[in-house]
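Q: Hi! First time asking for a complex rather than a single chain. Here are the components, and I think there are two in total. Is that enough to go on?
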Amino acid sequence: MERKWSWSRGVIHGIFLVLSIAIIAPMWLVVSASFTAEEELILSGYSFFPQEFSMQGYEVILQYPVDLIRAYGVTILVTIAGTLASILLTAMTGYVLARKDFRYRRMLTFYVFFTMIFSSGLVPFYMLVTKYLHIKDTVWALIIPYLLNPFYVLIMKGFMDKLPHEMIESGKMDGAGEWRMFFQLILPLSAPALATVSLFISFAYWNDWWLGLLFIDNEQWVPLQLLLYRTMSSIEFIANNAQYVDGLVDLSKFPSMSARMALAIVGAGPMMFIFPLFRRFFVAGLTIGSLKE
Amino acid sequence: MMQPAKRFSKWKHEWKMMKRQRSLLVMSAPAILFKLIFSYLPLIGLVIAFKSYRYDLGIFGSDWNGFNNFTFFFTSQTAWIITRNTVLYNGAFILLTTVCALLLAILLREIMGRRIQMYQTVLFLPHLLSWVVVGYIALAIFEPGKGLLHQLALSMGEQPVAWYQEPKWWPLILPLFHIWKSVGLSALIYFTGILGIHPSYYEAAQIDGASKWQLATKITIPMLMPLVVILFLVAVGGIFRADFGLFYFIPNDSSFLYSTTDVIDTYVYRSLKNISDIGMTAAVGLYQSVVGFVLVISANALVRRINRDNSMW
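A: Yes, that's all I need. Here is the structure of the assembled complex.
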């Protein structure tokens, strides 16, 4: 393709530059607010560039870092344990569904993917977890519901479908058991798919607030995203009802406005540098998943 | 009529086959069990939708009340509002995202080079933020008294808008947030699709003197159609299922805004958490699932009729 500078290319670059700014500006607003001094925020609100650079917000949250550290701990634990268990389950299921000689393949395919298009809705699911499994307010409620996502099974199956069938045949000839073949032959060959799906799963666990919102009420198992939400809504509550809570609640214990924004940065920031490195996988995974067979 | 002995031998044969593939069966057992517990058992719980549920009596002890829960819901004003909001927002999202993402992908192809790596990364960034964090961004923009727009209005000598109390702006705000967060990834997916088109098509067309516009409309878009149709279908099938995070965290669950921000998912969640009327809440969930199911089936049937290769199954 031609590399000459031309008007049309210049205009397109212009469009993307404007677009990039429009995408980054809202994020930058929060970054800027986290580095603004409390007095300035109260006086003149949020702005893209603080009049005076201040680390106040970060100092406040680092003075009482217990909640933050615990939330990071919960999220890291849930992400690692959940991803390991889920990728094994997903790979096993995908493999069985990719085995064309499996007698119950069609039945199982229907059984797994039917749940993608018809579900019971929130109420029965909520009842199941809270009243029958009794895992509300435990770490299990944050891990188990996401263990098997049919969409990831589809990606995995799509990849394994393309592995040569003769390989399995010759493995059988050599007398290798199904399990040995799965772990020593199939899994190593599926490394690209395993990487992609693991990334999807860990991303889903890391950014999840839904299970926390539904099932976690006690302090001990609050994941990062739920902590962020709770902080936001508790500050909202204090700010909107200051006249009622004055005296009842020690206001100094609630993080200030800049601290709130600093918390958002500390909570969401690190992954903004890690996940972009894997952009290719995100895109590739979604494309594989949207293709039939 | 089958002979008893024959039927017996059929089961014996089946049992033999199962034993032969027992390792594969064991491998699929965890998935079968998981789906049984988390997807199929809850279907039984749907009977709540036809009962007047009481906590002390439980799911099976509560009294049946026929279609009362549905009647109660559908005769309320809410039923219309949340259905309309869910469908209209999702419809707008699907159209906006598909058009914008396709356009961006085609533009990216025009400027191939080192710089597009940077654009791709930036486009992709919002996808990495959770809606909770985006809620913080929304707060920095709309917060009464301190938000960016409040400051902007003051500096221009205008009356600041109370964003969290003024429903009429949200049909504009929510699609903007949706586009901001999702257009990048969709564009990258289409762009990857474009990279997969064999260059010889373009070379041949260029030799014949095709313009850039013709390359885009006669080669790129037709070649991407299968991908577009499938993503479109999946989205249309999900038109009854709203993106909870967007509709819950961005308007900050402000009750002033429900007329334009409440969707089926937020309504169900709120009803469940407020333990108002479990039976009716389950009925709303069932309504959502059934209509969603019918939509997916018919969308797929429609595409099968047009082009069998593009259908999902």
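A: The CA atoms of residues 6 and 172 of chain A lie 61 Å apart. Let me know if you'd like any chain examined more closely.
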